[in-house]
């Protein structure tokens, strides 16, 4: 995802009690650069009704140690960030804490052991007042360490875990590293949701249709790993995240493309829709620019937030 400045035996299907303990019920939650001074949670809520957000990104600090920080540079306890998190809470919103992303030193790399990584995850969640972790993995990590850390977290505090993974080009599903991680967490018996990053991949034809096709390919990946689940149950553990407007590598997500993806999500009963990012959800640079503060396309303010807010699984 863009930086902020973006063969094992199948596990049995989790029981209803297990699902309630670990699975998010938040169906729409845009990513937000929580460090940005331009973020006005109250204004976003007033304009769109949106109150749930994925706050990004927690990585290792500037020294590259196993110390979580916002965007690797801002302390977890930073007063301005805390005020924004408090505003989400005051609105009755859910906070999902995202680690990793496109840049910076991953906690998953800096923390040498699963115990240290689990502790770092827990610290970030506690500061944000959250128990839902979104692990965004876009580079090579030690799969065993990450899996063990997530297992410790879920066992000790019933943390809801989302694994955010990039799709391959075309309708190829997930890349090899993502599939390896999913096989590992399935073997460990973890309850997770999977977030398909439908952005920055090569595809022919209509972009909205291409994003839907890529998500469907990820569904097929999951069905091949969680073989004990029904088709509907596989869709119910799958979410999707497009990059609105101009993507880093050329594709452009117009509002019309988002409508196509939304219709697909509604038809299939996906677990959730997210997008990168609410900071960009405005027409401040309708000239095709790639920016962290505007979408680069001709749109009304918060057009994507308002559209996706209509989603209900």
What can you see in these coordinates?
About 6% of the residues have low confidence. This protein has 313 residues and is an alpha/beta fold. The protein has a single domain, classed as TIM Barrel (Alpha-Beta Barrel), CATH 3.20.20.80. It is globular, with a radius of gyration of 18 Å. It is built from eleven helices and twelve strands. The longest helix is centred in the C-terminal third of the chain and has 19 residues. α5 crosses α6, α6 crosses α7 and α8 packs parallel to α10. It is 37% helix and 17% strand.
Question: Main attributes?
Answer:
single chain, 313 residues, alpha/beta, TIM Barrel, ten-stranded mixed sheet, 11 helices, 12 strands
Outline of the structure:
The protein is α/β, with parallel strands linked by helices and 313 residues long.
| CATH homology group | Glycosidases
Indicate the low-confidence ranges by residue numbers.
Answer: 5-24
Q: Total helix count?
A: 11
**What percent strand?**
15-25%
CATH topology: TIM Barrel
Number of domains: 1
Give the helices and strands, then pairings.
Blueprint lengths: L15 H7 L8 E3 L7 H8 L4 E8 L7 E3 L3 E2 L3 H12 L4 E6 L6 H4 L3 H15 L3 E5 L6 H15 L2 E7 L9 H12 L4 E7 L8 H19 L5 H5 L2 E5 L2 E2 L5 E2 L1 H14 L3 E2 L29 H6 L5
Parallel strand pairs: 1-2, 2-5, 5-6, 6-7, 7-8, 8-9, 9-12
Antiparallel strand pairs: 2-3, 3-4, 10-11
Helix pairs in contact: 5-6, 6-7, 8-10
């Amino acid at each position: 995802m863009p930086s902020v400045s973006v063969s094992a035996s199948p596990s049995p299907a989790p029981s209803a009690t297990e699902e309630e303990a670990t699975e998010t019920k938040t169906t729409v939650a845009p990513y937000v650069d929580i460090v940005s001074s331009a973020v006005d949670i109250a204004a976003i809520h007033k304009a769109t009704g949106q109150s749930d957000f994925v706050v990004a990104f927690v990585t290792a600090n500037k020294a590259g140690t196993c110390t979580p920080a916002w965007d690797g540079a801002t302390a977890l306890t930073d007063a301005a960030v805390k005020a924004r998190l408090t505003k989400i809470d005051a609105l009755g919103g859910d906070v999902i804490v995202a680690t990793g992303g496109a840049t910076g030193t991953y906690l998953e790399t800096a923390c040498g052991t699963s115990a240290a990584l689990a502790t770092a995850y827990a610290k970030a969640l506690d500061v944000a007042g959250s128990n839902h972790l979104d692990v965004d993995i876009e580079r090579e990590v030690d799969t065993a360490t990450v899996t063990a850390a997530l297992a410790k977290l879920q066992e000790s505090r019933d943390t809801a875990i989302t694994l955010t993974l990039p799709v391959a080009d075309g309708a190829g599903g997930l890349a090899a590293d993502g599939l390896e991680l999913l096989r590992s967490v399935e073997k460990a018996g973890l309850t997770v949701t999977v977030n398909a990053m439908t952005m920055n991949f090569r595809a022919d034809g209509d972009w909205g249709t291409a994003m839907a096709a890529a998500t469907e390919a990820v569904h097929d990946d999951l069905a091949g790993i969680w073989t004990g689940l029904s088709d509907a149950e596989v869709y119910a553990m799958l979410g999707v995240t497009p990059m609105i407007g101009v993507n880093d590598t050329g594709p452009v997500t117009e509002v019309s493309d988002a409508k196509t993806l939304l219709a697909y999500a509604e038809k299939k009963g996906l677990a959730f829709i997210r997008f990168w990012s609410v900071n960009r959800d405005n027409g401040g640079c309708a000239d095709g620019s790639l920016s962290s503060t505007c979408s680069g396309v001709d749109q009304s303010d918060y057009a994507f937030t308002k559209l996706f807010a209509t989603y209900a699984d």
